[in-house]
Amino acid sequence: MQLVRRSALVALASIELAVLLAVLIKPAYAYVDPGSGLLAMQMGGSMLAGALFVLRSRIRRILRLGSNEETIAAENKEQAEATK
Questions:
Q1: pLDDT tens for each residue of 58-68
Q2: How are the residues of the chain apportioned to helix, strand and coil, as percentages rounded to the nearest 5?
Q3: How confident is the model at residue 70 (pLDDT cuts 50, 70, 90)?
Q4: Which residues contact 75 (CB under 8 A, 6 or more apart)?
Q5: Running DSSP on this structure, what letter comes out for residue 67?
Q6: Domain for residue 9, yes or no?
Q7: pTM of the entire structure?
Q8: Rounded Cα–Cα distance for residues 76 and 17 (Å)
Q9: Does residue 23 lie in a domain region?
């Protein structure tokens, strides 16, 4: 019974949002280049990739706290050789 009630509320909220958006439509008196959407997607993808990189490095740092120092030293040496 509760699932039906929640589904009905979600459906009504969706309809209300659609009607509200339809009422608030204003004509656009500007030109938007087709490449603008691609630029926005590229920026979003770059931000996502950067966030994933930061999260990955933080997770690795957390997991290294429990490992021994020799393993960390070997990994640092490998990274130093890779950057040369």
A1: 888 888 765 56
A2: 80, 0, 20
A3: low
A4: 64
A5: S
A6: yes
A7: 0.40
A8: 53
A9: yes
